Fold this protein.
Amino acid sequence: MGMELSPVGSTSCWVAAARAMESESADALFSDPYARTLAGETGFAMVKSAAGELLRSADPRNAYLSIRTRFIDDVVVRAVRERGGIEQVVLVAAGMDARAFRFDWPAELAWFEVDRAEIFERKEALLAEMGAVARCRRAVVRADLELEWSARLIEAGFDVARPALFVVEGLLVYLEAAAVERLMGTVAELAAAAGSGVVADVVNQDMLTSVYTREMMARLAEMGCGWRFGTNDPRGFFERFGWRVTVNTPDEAEVGHGRWPHPRVPESVAGIPRSYFVSGWR
């Protein structure tokens, strides 16, 4: 399949495998008919490798990845269909995401996927094999997100003057704090038009350091995809970049759809690993 995927690149196959397992279950939160092929052996091997540390439940599905996928699905669909004015969607670190193909988008929607060349070398070949056809105007932007990438996005047809939604899913945890600052600064510059939005997932510092997550963090580091970034103030972090922010958590009933496996712990209790879904608008 051409270039070998880096360990972090391989996590996109892992996410696709998790999406395939969710899609193929009786009470699926979403349908992704492309996920199994996009995951490949790499994705399912990673699911198996990480299972001991990450699952600890009778249900082999990854509750967090299922809930996150559905949450972001809902934000993107609402932004395009209900908010009006969102004419561009940018997947920052697109990985093996198939949203351009699995929803019935307006034909004129401009859809941009940004990721490294290694990802698209694999992904585009698999999509072609499946005969997948995007339901919008999809453009692939090959760029390293830790370097300068905005010029390539604009070259691909992105218009800074028009409202856009930026999706930053499954990325921030893998970056050092300085790289997160640069990336979110770039997103803020590109999403300057009124009505623009961002949706992202982020974890708190305790996720990286807690005794509850120690095994999981060690396993991820062994796999070459250790987590590096967390913030205990997701609202304040995103507001610094000019967003009006809503912060959700997977343990909320309307977000978790009954799937979150842990009891809800009030924010006032310190030292608890937490995940956040942040959506912000201009």
